[in-house]
Design brief:
The chain is of the alpha/beta class. 30% of the residues lie in helices and 22% in strands. The protein has 14 helices and 24 strands. The chain has an eight-stranded mixed beta sheet with strand order 2-20-12-15-11-3-4-5, with helices on both faces. Strands 21, 22, 23 and 24 form a four-stranded mixed beta sheet that branches. A three-stranded antiparallel beta sheet has the order 1-13-14, with no helix packed on it. Helix 4 packs across helix 5 and helix 4 packs across helix 9. The radius of gyration is 25 Å and the shape is globular.
């Protein structure tokens, strides 16, 4: 037992004062071990601040929505694009590779999600969309990291390792760490992969009562990907970044199969503009596409959800017929460590949670666990982009959707964001690379190029120029080591 009778008396008084005495309603029915568990569970909650956060987010929920008149298109001086100049793109890429070579770049991966919606019982990052190689999302990203280290070393003579911080959840951390370990860390150094855990926060009823998952445990849920910042502080991630001399942090979600990690062009763009915060965007496919858009609101940078914009506003165009609100957010961001320090140390408490009304399993008055058939509570969430408002020099970089954005959200057979669409998008990208490098295809089918061979279509000319390829095609660096240059050329035919 880790408490005294006096401790319990004080706890009961504290809970009564905050309207949460129901947390101990079944105390006398619990075993001593269960009482220990419940006592620790309650003590782990910063109850006063959590209830204040609940009140703040409910007030925001009940207040009038933001007036659309306050939404303004992004000013031109905040916007850049990869479509303007290949020469500028090359300069930005070189700046980014130099940053990598000097050991100043880190990746920040948000990977707390399970593959439940995909129909699998393991973390989403372990999912294979059907690649010929059998590689999962984690392996694809790890090999892209290795390739960027190699390219930086080739350009600048040597390169420091890229530090990779991976935020998991209590449900995914062990499985993720075990998976990396069993796969030899995918060729990366174990010491440069840092796993940390997203905190779980209590769920609350619509009446403001903390919900119980069982008689001896509080119902909890992840606090959204914006809880990243608090977790970075509590888990020592920010301190580690500063200790290692990191300056540029590329932050992204695990489920985008086309994500460039790290992207030296994006990093170089933000460095060149001396930005403390940046975001990649893709042009909306159509005015009412269900994607959040980045805009200016009351002098601050903001991601406005598609549900907050009327059809009339969504269809607004400029004098050239282009959509005014077209910058679709793809959860791909740049931060300086000085910006993260400001956010985490001074600004995080200013962020207001968003309300997600849910059907949350809980116990009834008799202590029986039930699954409600209607909404009974809320999960409080913060979003990673909520911190844009604190940026003093913000950059938005428009990129090509077919080169950089294909998220895995839905199960096999879904019309979009499914394993099949991700596989097709990656295959089409790799076919474009081969065609651009001078190769030709004889038929239709799948194409896969190892990231260890090429991460962005580079260095393919000597291999594919003036050659015919039969599909399916899989170009892979030998397992003997990606430096030896041995390539598997199944389906490769020379032009006549």
């Amino acid at each position: 037992m880790t408490y005294t009778d006096e401790d319990i008396t004080l706890l009961k008084s504290f809970l009564v004062a905050h309207g949460q005495e129901h947390l101990l309603a079944h105390w006398d029915e619990l075993s001593s071990d269960q009482q220990d568990d419940l006592y620790r569970d309650i003590q782990s909650v910063d109850l006063e601040n959590h209830l204040k956060s609940f009140q703040r987010c409910m007030q925001k929920e009940l207040s009038a929505p933001e007036k659309e008149d306050n939404f303004q298109p992004l000013p031109l001086d905040a916007c850049e694009s990869v479509f303007i100049s290949n020469k500028i793109n090359e300069r930005w890429t070189n700046i980014g590779l130099k940053e990598i070579s000097e050991g100043k770049v880190a990746l920040l991966l948000m990977a707390g999600g399970q593959g439940t919606r995909l129909g699998v019982p393991y973390p989403k990052g372990m999912y294979n969309v059907g690649l010929q190689s059998g590689k999962c999302l984690y392996q694809i990203q790890a090999e892209r990291v290795r390739k960027q280290e190699q390219l930086a070393a080739q350009m600048y003579g040597s390169s420091e390792s890229i530090r990779w911080y991976i935020m998991t959840s209590e449900h995914t951390k062990k499985a993720t760490v075990d998976y990396f370990k069993s796969n030899g860390w995918f060729g990366l150094s174990e010491e440069n992969i840092i796993f940390f855990e997203q905190e779980m926060i209590p769920c609350i009823s619509l009446e403001g009562k903390i919900l119980m998952d069982s008689k001896s445990s509080i119902a909890r849920a992840p606090g959204g990907n914006g809880d990243l910042y608090r977790s970075m502080k509590n888990e020592g991630v920010l301190q580690d970044m500063l200790k290692k001399g990191i300056r540029s942090v590329h932050c992204y979600c695990v489920d985008n199969i086309l994500v460039k990690v790290p992207d030296p062009l994006f990093i170089g763009c933000c460095l060149d503009r001396q930005s403390d915060c940046g975001a990649k965007v893709v042009s909306k496919a159509y005015p009412t596409e269900a994607v959040g858009v980045i805009c200016e609101c009351n002098g601050n940078w903001k991601v406005v959800e598609y549900s907050e914009i009327s059809s009339e506003t969504a269809h607004m165009t400029d004098s050239e017929g282009k959509l005014l609100f077209s910058q679709g957010n793809i959860c791909n961001h740049y931060f300086t460590t000085s910006f993260l320090t400001k956010v985490i140390e001074d600004k995080e408490s200013e962020l207001i949670h968003h309300v997600a009304k849910k059907k949350i399993p809980t116990i009834n008055g008799s202590g029986e666990r039930i699954v409600p058939d209607k909404i009974n509570g809320i999960k409080m969430e913060k979003f990673v982009f909520d911190v844009f408002q604190f940026s003093e020099k913000f950059t938005v970089l428009e990129v090509a959707r077919n080169e950089e954005f294909s998220p895995l959200k839905n199960p096999s057979g879904a019309p979009k964001c499914s394993p099949e669409t991700c596989l097709e998008d990656l295959s089409n990208q790799h076919k474009r690379w081969i065609i651009r490098a001078g190769g030709t295809f004889k038929n239709e089918g799948l194409c896969e190029i190892s990231p260890l061979l090429s991460s962005n279509g580079e260095n393919l000319e000597d291999l594919v120029r003036d050659k015919f390829f039969s599909l399916p095609l899989h170009l892979e660096v030998s397992k003997n080591g990606y430096h030896n240059g041995h390539i598997s050329t199944n389906g490769l035919h020379s032009k006549l």
